[in-house]
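Input.
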Amino acid sequence: MYDNTAEAVEATIAELKPGMKSVNITFKVLNTSEEREVESRKNGEIYRVVDALVGDSTGVILMPIWNETIDAIEDGATYTLTNGYTGLFKGNLRLQLGKFGIIAQAEEPIDEVNSEVDMSAEEHSSRSRY
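Output.
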């Protein structure tokens, strides 16, 4: 019988690549963009979104935060994402919460963040799979 559940991957920001699934990662929220509204192409519903710059000792990446999750995160706080995934937005890598991901306050804060390595800055081809 085929099992389509991906095994969880413990990762650091610098280890993230396009197409990763079931990612468990701890990061610090460095800052968030202004909140904006996005209209769904499917049903016309309006959603709230911010782009959070998150990082750890290995690098930083952009992560869109949607709707009620926006109210649950704070700049400067450290969180653990369970069952997240990576995707591309306009050719740039993003860390995604998705509908099955869980974000929670981390047990240990991250003090040092390596902002020299920006995983969202590099362009990726949507054809490449890792």
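Residues 9-105 form a domain with the OB fold (Dihydrolipoamide Acetyltransferase, E2P) fold (CATH 2.40.50.140).
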